[in-house]
Design brief:
Blueprint: E1 6-12, E2 16-24, E3 30-39, E4 43-44, E5 47-48, H1 51-69, E6 75-80, E7 86-95, H2 105-115, E8 124-136, E9 139-142, E10 152-163, H3 164-176, E11 180-186, H4 187-195, H5 198-203, E12 205-210, E13 215-221, E14 224-231, H6 235-246, H7 250-260, E15 278-282, E16 289-293, H8 294-318, E17 329-332, H9 341-349, E18 353-355, H10 386-397, H11 408-418
Parallel strand pairs: 1-6, 6-11, 12-17, 17-18
Antiparallel strand pairs: 1-2, 2-3, 4-5, 7-10, 8-9, 8-10, 12-13, 13-14, 15-16
Helix pairs in contact: 1-3, 3-11, 4-10, 6-7, 6-8, 8-9
């Protein structure tokens, strides 16, 4: 064990918790040796509301992954999202110091600090400040001004902020599950590492990661992040509508959505005459089953999904003209997997849409004996691994672990200060 490089990623979502244990290979790639799922408990819209329930669910997911891997892990890289995350763009400017008027690291640090001077409520913290571009004496589009000559240095930044209490409660839940926290990563940015190409980021692309309780959006242009959003809608809203519309338990509604859900409504009702297009639905009491046309399920799913995409589209418009993102939209996350989802999204967004999934999840995902997360083909869809695979990639880039074993307050403070360095990868 001591000679093996083991990295663990932990995606703590509203609907499910996914743990992946990976071993770094000699060619600096990685091999997945353990995967564990558990139903998420104690979270609402990505935020911990019951620490004991959350820690028990986390422990269950980690234990499953450890059994498959045949090893015990001590620490993990954790994803963070939730409705408490928000962002703004801000500008900073300083005079270049020194007699030679050559821009130094000190000048860059000062202008980044100037960009962070914003009014914040007492319960919020700046999570990180991502530089979009530097401006030297009015010349824009500079990625690295170090060593350049100039009198005036400016920076355009993207600032992500969140609730310090929510971050601390997430860390506490993981520690109570018996796992130390290596680092914390904003989940949509982790997903972008595993499903977006560098060409897409440079050209301009929008990542839409649809989870159970929230939808995370990241907008890239010219290789830099220009906007991030977290919307309080996700796949659970579709599930709840199915439960109400078909008068069936929530658990049964989720199964119906995964196995039979589609956004593509038939042109007419002739398919109702085909018994293959009927599905069994459990009654709300859980005692009886009845058969209904599959079309009735689609009649519930399609309008709710359209409404969700229209909400996302409004956020995309607020980020700027769509011609800034000619690479279009990449959908990922478990709730993006409904049949016809990409076609429906293209009609709403008026942009090309593709489904994004990591290329690194091989045979292990096919042997997980958990029907709740399997599609109608009996396999675990790769798109639900987008965030956790991104956490593994982040972990590979950020060894050795610098905060392992620290307490909750130290972990949170280290996160606020240390996470900034990773975002240099995005421009």
């Amino acid at each position: 064990m001591s000679s093996r490089r083991i990295i663990t990623g932990l995606d703590i979502g509203t609907t499910k918790i996914c743990t992946i244990i990976a071993e770094v290979t000699s060619d600096e790639d990685f091999e997945i040796i353990g995967i564990g799922f558990s139903p998420s408990k104690g979270l609402k819209k990505g935020v911990v509301v019951d620490i004991d329930k959350a820690s028990n669910a986390i422990r269950e997911s980690i234990n499953k992954a450890q059994i498959m891997a045949g090893i015990e892990v001590k620490s993990a890289f954790i994803g963070i999202a939730g409705s408490h995350i928000s962002s703004i763009n801000n500008h900073g400017v300083v005079a270049v110091s020194g007699d030679e008027k050559e821009i130094t690291e000190n000048d860059i640090d000062r202008v980044m600090e100037a960009a962070q001077i914003i009014s914040l409520p007492s319960e919020e913290e700046i999570i990180h400040v991502i530089p979009r571009e530097f401006i030297v004496d009015g010349h824009k589009g500079i990625k690295d001004p170090l060593g350049m000559s100039g009198v005036r240095l400016e920076v355009e930044t993207h600032i992500v902020k969140g609730s310090s209490t929510s971050i601390q409660n997430l860390v506490k839940s993981v520690i109570r599950a018996g796992i130390e926290v290596n680092d914390i990563v904003l989940e949509p940015l982790a997903s972008s590492k595993s499903v977006l190409t560098e060409d897409e980021k440079e050209l301009g692309v929008i990542l839409v990661d649809i989870g159970g309780g929230t939808t995370d959006i990241v907008v890239f242009h010219e290789g830099s992040i220009v906007a991030t959003y977290v919307l309080p809608v996700g796949g659970n809203h579709v599930t709840h509508d199915i439960a109400i519309g078909l008068r069936t338990p929530i658990s049964e509604a989720e199964k119906l959505k995964i196995h039979y859900g589609t956004t593509l409504n038939p042109v007419n009702n002739e398919e109702d005459n085909d018994r293959n297009n009927y599905i069994e639905v459990l009654s709300a009491s859980g005692e009886n089953k009845r058969e209904i046309p599959r079309r009735m399920l689609t009649n519930v799913i399609e309008p709710r999904t359209t409404e969700m995409y229209e909400m996302i589209n409004r956020q995309i418009y607020s980020a700027g003209p769509k011609d800034l993102t000619p690479a279009g939209v990449v959908l990922t996350g478990g709730a993006s997997l409904l049949d016809g989802s990409a076609q429906l999204a293209e009609g709403v967004f008026d942009l090309p849409v593709r489904l994004g999934k990591p290329d690194y999840v091989y045979g292990l995902s096919d042997v997980i004996d958990d029907p709740l997360y399997k599609n109608k083909d009996g396999k675990i869809p790769k798109a639900i691994f987008s965030t956790v695979i991104g956490l593994i990639e982040y972990g590979m880039e950020n060894e050795p672990n610098e905060i392992k074993g620290k307490n909750e307050k130290e972990i949170t403070e280290s996160f606020f200060n240390k996470i900034k360095s990773w975002f240099q990868d995005f421009f």
